[in-house]
Write a structure and sequence with these properties.
CATH class of the domain at 169-346: Mainly Alpha
CATH architecture of the domain at 169-346: Up-down Bundle
Strand order of the largest sheet: 9-8-7-10-11-13-12-14-15
Distance between the termini: 57 Å
Structural class: alpha+beta
Helix content: 40-55%
Largest sheet: 9 strands, mixed
Number of helices: 35
């Protein structure tokens, strides 16, 4: 904005309204127009004589100002009194403009300025607002007003036309979402009453439900079990009616549920559920997988006694929408949003954030010549985004628009999920991608990707059937087996389940769990170990299903990077893949639950050992999810062969050369701490913790004990006077490995750094502390203590543990026992031990200090000794002070 215009704008804002515009009595519309509105229009480059037509005739009314372009009105300005509520004048003003064929209206009372589109189909007048501001704020918002209605910009009206379309889409989607929600709620209430009663009284129905619960991994003891079933059933039915109506209005099937068709069918068929059933029968010839499959397992549409009023409400509501005119973007948004976030959580349907999906797809490369597989596809996030990329690529290659949809769904995209509701969501999402060229072929199936069905049946039996048809005509197991027969895939992507599945709460849970674990251990020996993490098994499965040179991209928790019991999957990755990239997010962005820091891993299948060993991986560190969108990150590259040398092939991540060099220097000429000091956890009660804690010593079995982590600080033990019951009959663990009577190191369990103290007084402790007993007599515990409390070893610990800043961070015994302890002579140890004795004594005095001056004096002395210890530790590890 030039200085002259800015000066005039400021003068307009500073105008004393009460003195120069308002009157003691009567309305001041004319003053508003002359003293406020016209000057503002002039600033927007409109000429009073040439481009403003005053009292412009619109039928039997006159508009205050019409902005004229080539003799025709382009925008009408309606000015009202200073104290008028503009809301009362919206409809009239917009109607006047629409009758005149004018698209745009400014409604103002001088204080507030609003811009409207005069008419948007299906949108109430009050919702046609495009932009609003106030005179008080106009210096800040002028540029936004200018880019919408200045003389130059109104000529094309490009921006406001686009904004009006966005308003139309938002309102249309909002109305549709509301209608779908109302239909779902009505259906849910009806189903819930019926199913609760039927589950109690109908044994066959109960067995069907229990089978469904067991198969999808729900809990039979869940009090919300029937509620979840009814939510799922309600959405399933509403989604089917929605898709059917879309197909009717777009001419893909004969109409039965349009307003006119319904009227005719109601004259012939009494029950509305029968009309709906007939409509489903007809569309099932085209989309068999969606409409011949049951609502849940063996419960079919016709098996439920539907409430006539409820079904009529659904039919009447959805027949009012013209789905032929609603864009696919609006339909997609409505379909996605009418299932609330809370209900997605209840049903276990969580969306992977778009930025994660986009990042992974960008790295793996999605092109028309590739087969993309998601082994745990959920509601289809990765497949949907892959579809968009593929469609753009096909268009660039010159493919005909009517061929692309079928090509993508039949040749490029493949997905399996164990949850039938999830697969239905994916199918519907993908069908909605192109409503003008529907296809009945889609490679999405319900099943367990971990079942090795690709070699267990005769493929010839399925050659003439597509997977979605097979999903309902035959055993569902064979449907996803057919998809697995498409292996090897060019790309495997996804967000696999992070916990065990399929057996929680079932009546045969122990037996089934044992069978499941046995199968996983037998079939996935390279990933299933100890307490099996399902995502590690999915990683092995995904790599297996890749072709040579194929690319893998998963979002998973960071526990696999360093955890002792992920060594098999790390070894398997090193034996079969180039590690292209590992991305670590320091902040967890998942909305539900704490699963650890998110990690994106990109792999390329490579069976030649030399190529793998020469490969340099790239590691990236993002502080938060916002950084990935803003391009702010740290990164470093180093050979993946480094992981071959770490214990248990741990994937240590370094984000700069200095950190990697520091760790390597720390490990030279050292022994692992675990070979010198054996650590074990403190005492755990069989029952409640409070049962083994007392403030009084009531028998010889009650011994002095530490019950809080705060009783341990660096070189300091501050006993708070509690006693612990040392009776093996009430203790679950912590008494076999730990020796409490001998001198020991006590180390805090919680925290993102090492905090340790020395105990030679025989204290017991709960499992809030780790107990360190000496096993190599060549070493003095106080020498070890000096190293553990040093900033040097804590820097090392931070770099190799990734615990710094973690929510609920803990010091893990396994990681502690890996710490490198410098091999040292008795003399070197002795020098440190003397200093440790001094700092322990000073801390004991500090704990008893009675005056602030004494406290400050002791703190200064402790700091001096601490600095001396730190200097010696650095010297022992070969760091020369500059």
């Amino acid at each position: 904005m030039d200085k002259s215009k800015l000066k005039k704008l400021k003068a307009l804002v500073k105008l004393d309204i009460d003195k120069y515009v308002r009157r003691a009595k009567g309305k001041v519309e004319e003053n508003v127009k002359i003293k406020l509105t016209i000057p503002l229009l002039q600033l927007l480059d409109y000429d009073v004589q040439k481009e403003m037509d005053f009292e412009h005739h619109v039928r039997n009314k006159r508009a205050d100002i019409a902005l004229m372009f080539e003799g025709k009105p382009k925008l009408i300005v309606e000015t009202k009194d200073l104290d008028e509520e503009l809301d009362h004048h919206i409809k009239k003003a917009l109607d006047y403009a629409f009758e005149k064929g004018v698209d745009w209206v400014i409604l103002t009372n001088g204080i507030e300025i609003r811009l409207y589109k005069s008419y948007i189909s299906g949108v109430p007048p009050e919702d046609r607002l495009i932009f609003d501001t106030t005179l008080k704020e106009i210096t800040k918002t002028y540029s936004s007003l200018e880019e919408r209605v200045s003389k130059e910009n109104l000529r094309t009206a490009e921006k406001i036309t686009k904004e009006a379309e966005e308003v139309r889409e938002n309102v249309t989607a909002s109305i549709l979402i509301k209608d779908l929600a109302n239909c779902k709620n009505a259906l849910f209430s009806d189903l819930l009453d019926k199913f609760k009663l039927r589950y109690k009284k109908d044994q066959k129905f109960k067995e069907v439900i229990d089978s469904w619960v067991d198969r999808v991994g729900m809990d039979l003891n869940d009090p919300k079990l029937i509620e979840k079933l009814c939510i799922e059933g309600s959405y399933t039915l509403i989604n089917r009616v929605l898709f059917l109506r879309i197909c009717e209005d777009r001419g893909h099937i004969k109409p039965k549920l349009t307003r006119d068709s319904l009227k005719k069918w109601r004259e012939m068929v009494e029950k509305p559920s029968r009309i709906l059933g007939l409509a489903f029968e007809e569309i099932s010839d085209r989309f068999e997988g969606l409409y011949k499959s049951p609502l849940f397992d063996d419960i079919k549409f016709e098996d439920v006694k539907w409430n006539d009023n409820t079904i009529n409400f659904i039919l009447n509501t959805l027949c009012e929408h013209d789905f032929g005119k609603i864009t696919k973007d609006i339909l997609g948004r409505a379909y996605e949003q009418h299932i609330t976030k809370e209900e997605r959580k209840e049903l276990g349907q969580f969306y992977t954030p778009d930025f994660v999906i986009d990042y992974i797809l960008e790295r793996v490369g999605i092109t028309p010549d590739k087969k993309i597989f998601d082994p745990a596809c959920g509601s289809g996030g990765f497949l949907m985004k892959s579809y968009d990329r593929l469609r753009d690529s096909y268009r660039k290659e010159g493919w005909a628009e009517d061929k692309i949809h079928n090509e993508i769904l039949s040749k490029n995209l493949f997905g399996i999920d164990i949850n039938p509701f999830a697969t239905q969501l994916t199918v519907m999402n993908l069908f909605l991608k192109d409503l003008d060229h529907p296809t009945s072929y889609i490679n999405i199936a319900e099943g367990d990707s971990l079942e090795r069905l690709e070699n267990s049946f005769d493929l010839d039996y399925f050659q003439k059937e597509n997977p979605l048809n097979k999903l309902t005509k035959s055993n569902k197991r064979f449907s996803h087996g057919k998809i697995l027969k498409e292996m090897p895939f060019d790309v495997v992507v996804g967000n696999p389940p992070y916990i065990s599945f399929g057996i929680r709460g079932s009546r045969d849970s122990a037996k089934k769990k044992e069978a499941l674990l046995k199968r996983l251990r037998e079939q996935y020996p390279n990933s299933a170990e100890y307490k099996i993490s399902l995502y590690a098994v999915f990683m092995q499965r995904g790599i297996e299903l890749l072709k040579k040179g194929g690319v893998f991209g998963f979002i998973i928790p960071d526990s696999f990077l360093l955890g002792r019991f992920f060594s098999k999957i790390r070894h398997y990755i090193l034996d079969n893949c180039k590690i292209v990239e590992i991305v670590l997010f320091m902040k967890d962005f998942w909305k539900y639950g704490i699963v650890g820091r998110p990690v994106i891993i990109i792999l390329q299948k490579e069976l030649e050992k030399k190529k793998r060993e020469k490969n340099k991986l790239k590691v990236l560190l993002y502080s938060s999810s916002k950084d990935i969108q803003n391009g702010r990150f740290k990164f470093f590259s180093y050979p993946q062969s480094y992981f071959e040398k770490t214990s248990y092939n741990r994937f240590r991540l370094f984000f700069d050369k200095t950190s990697k060099d520091f760790v390597e220097k720390m490990e030279r000429d050292t022994k692992e701490l675990g070979s010198i000091v054996r650590f074990s956890s403190g005492l755990i009660a069989k029952g409640k913790k409070k049962d083994i804690i007392s403030r009084k010593k009531t028998s010889d079995k009650w011994l002095r004990g530490l019950t809080e982590g705060s009783e341990i600080n660096r070189y300091s033990l501050l006993y708070k006077g509690n006693f612990i019951l040392y009776d093996l009959s009430v203790l679950k663990s912590g008494f076999k490995e730990a020796n409490y009577s001998e001198s020991k190191i006590l180390l805090r369990k919680t925290g993102d750094r090492i905090t340790a103290a020395y105990d030679n007084k025989g204290f017991l402790c709960l499992d809030i502390l780790h107990v360190g007993n000496l096993v190599d007599k060549k070493y003095d515990l106080r020498y070890i203590l000096a190293i553990l409390n040093s900033h040097t070893i804590n820097k090392y610990y931070t770099l190799i543990s990734l615990e710094s800043g973690r929510v609920m961070a803990q010091t893990d015994i396994e990681t502690i026992e890996q710490l490198p302890i410098k091999i040292a002579s008795k003399k070197v140890q002795g020098d440190l031990v003397k200093l440790v004795d001094k700092i322990i004594l000073l801390n004991e005095k500090l704990n008893k200090a009675k005056s602030s001056s004494e406290t400050e004096k002791l703190k200064k002395q402790i700091k001096i000794i601490d600095e001396k210890i730190e200097k010696k530790v650095r010297s022992i590890y070969g760091f020369i002070e500059k």
